[in-house]
Each structure stands twice: as C-alpha cells, then as structure tokens.
Amino acid sequence: MNAIGTHLLMELRVCDEALLDDVRHIENLMIGAADEAGGTVLARSFHKFEPRGVTGIVAIAESHLCIHTWPEHRYAAVDIFTCGTSFKPHEAAKLIIASLRCGKPSITEIQRGPLSEAKATAV
Amino acid sequence: MNAIGTHLLMELRVCDEALLDDVRHIENLMIGAADEAGGTVLARSFHKFEPRGVTGIVAIAESHLCIHTWPEHRYAAVDIFTCGTSFKPHEAAKLIIASLRCGKPSITEIQRGPLSEAKATAV
To answer: Any catalytic annotation for residue B47?
Structure first.
C-alpha cells in the first residue's frame, strides 16, 4: 500500500431529508461512489436506526468510506480514507454530495499514513 | 442519536511490527476495544493484505472504528467516531494503543455532527 494517504472529512449540511433516511439509497450511493472512483469493495454494512438515521461503512482495498446521517438536521458526516493511487477520493466526494442534494458541503483534507505529516487542509 | 460527535484520528507510530500484520490480533483488539468502551457492535470486516498490512472496520451503534496498518513502517492509522453518550472513545483509544505496543501515539480530536463546529484539537 502507498505510504501516504488522503482522508477527506466531509460535513454535509442542508441535504435532502428523505434521502438521508433512506438506507437503500445511502447504500447504493456509497457503493456507487466507491465503484465510480475506482475502488475495490471488500465489504459493506448499512444500518437503519429508529426513529431515523443511517450508518454505513464500506471497506475498500484502498481503505474505507463511512457515512452517518441525521435526517432531522439535514446533515451527514462522511469519511473517505484512501491510500491507493487508483482510487480518486475527490470523485467519490462529488458523487456523494450530488446524490444527497447537499446544499452546504465542507471538506477537510488530511494527509495520513506512515510518511505523511498529518496536515489538515480545508478543501 | 446525539447531535454532537467525537472523532479521534489516531496516528500510531513505533508499534509492534508483527502485531500490525496479525489480522486475528487486530480484529480481537478492535472488537475488544469497542466492547470495553461500551459500544454495541453491529458489523465488522477485517482483511489481510499481501504481502503485508491489515484493514479493519467496525460499525457500532454509536458510529465506527477503523484501522489500517503498515507493518513495514510500524504504523497504524485508527479512527474512532462516536455520537453516543454511552461509548467512551478515549477508553477505546487507550486499549488500542496498549494492544499494539505503540511507542509514539498522536491523537487529534474533532467535534463533528450537525450541531458541532467541526473544530480539531490535538489531544
């Protein structure tokens, strides 16, 4: 694996409330984003909470994607961590933002991995 | 779910090289850390790469724990994201650091969630 990784921490606000509570939609968008961005999906787990909210995790060969939603706040926290050169994290991020109809996305990019300096940059 | 979450980004250096490449040890320590800290494990996935390295993800009711290791660099990247009051992320962090015999841990704590200000603090 590459020794420097990219971790995108995404705070997605003003999203579509119904989509944030639709576990099937969330699963399709996260797997779709991983595939489109060149990732090899190893495993996945998606869970619908009551009364609302979804948690999803996807293990990819280049690391992981996670999502946690708060439909009542129209907010989702998303993480995309990758250390491969084939996976394009920013492509995955764009697809997720569009799929949730997010009106106010913010992304912080952190370099991680054994040869990184773990610097955080607002994207 | 609580509207403010804690995300610990852990850069673990000078760890035990053999333990970092032992997928069974990594799985036991991550599940054990989640249990000890009060988490309810919903799903798990652990993968051993060739020639070396392990990736693991654990979905918990309060969010997720992830680990990616680089045994040849004696390094692991760990994430603990929780939004529940019952789960104690710092307890989980301590157990993971001890279990990997990490000599140089650094932790950055970020508040996330719909009501957070997404501030990062070195712990």
So the answer is: no
